[in-house]
Structure formats: C-alpha cells, structure tokens
Design a protein that fits this description.
Elements lengths: L2 E6 L3 H6 L9 E3 L4 E4 L7 E4 L7 E2 L2 E2 L29 H11 L4
Parallel strand pairs: 1-3
Antiparallel strand pairs: 1-4, 2-3, 5-6
C-alpha cells in the first residue's frame, strides 16, 4: 500500500512562494506523491495505490487514484515526501482498521 495523492485546501500561490512548481491547474508533482491544491476544500483528503480503503479512512476522505503529470524539478530542491502525519482522536481504532485494510489482521 502506498500513498499516491494528497488533496489540500491551499491555493497555488503559497506553494509557489515556498519554491514548488505548480502545474496543470494546481498540481504539485513529486517523485512519490501527487499533491492537488484546491482552495475550495475545507479539509485534506488522500488516495492510495489500489482499492485498499473505503471512502473514509481515519476520518479523512479517500479519493480515487489520479494519474499524475510527469515530475519536474522544484526550485526548492524537494523531490519526495518521507511521511505524512495524521492526528486522530482514536489511534487504537485507526491502527486496527489500517491493519484490516492491509489484510494484516
């Protein structure tokens, strides 16, 4: 299982100011992740490789896998994301659901 997409409620200007190349109407393409900038969404959503999770996971909406444009160098030098931190109210329950989704339980 691999995180492939993050949809965040930001506009392109703040990401460009931080040194990212924003392309195709609000997409920041890294080597291992597509970040979609959508200032109209109130919260983050995410997508994973394959059909692993239902429409919500950890209280965060899950989006379908999206084809990303090709990676381009960013002026800030960033090319990958190491990890994403998600804060939840019931971490034990989330851990169980994560293991179930990955067929580890």
């Amino acid at each position: 299982m691999r995180l492939t997409t993050l949809v965040v409620g930001d506009g392109a200007l703040s990401w460009q100011s931080a040194g990212f190349t924003v392309q195709n109407g609000g997409k920041v393409v890294l080597k291992n992740l597509l970040i979609i900038l959508d200032g109209n969404v109130p919260r983050t959503s995410w997508g994973f490789e394959g059909d692993v999770f239902p429409t919500m996971f950890g209280g965060v909406p899950v989006v379908d896998e999206i084809d990303a444009p090709s990676f381009v160098e960013h002026p800030n030098g960033i090319s990958t994301v190491d990890h994403v931190v998600l804060r939840v109210n019931a971490p034990s329950l989330l851990k169980v659901r994560f293991y179930q989704a990955c067929k580890l339980l």
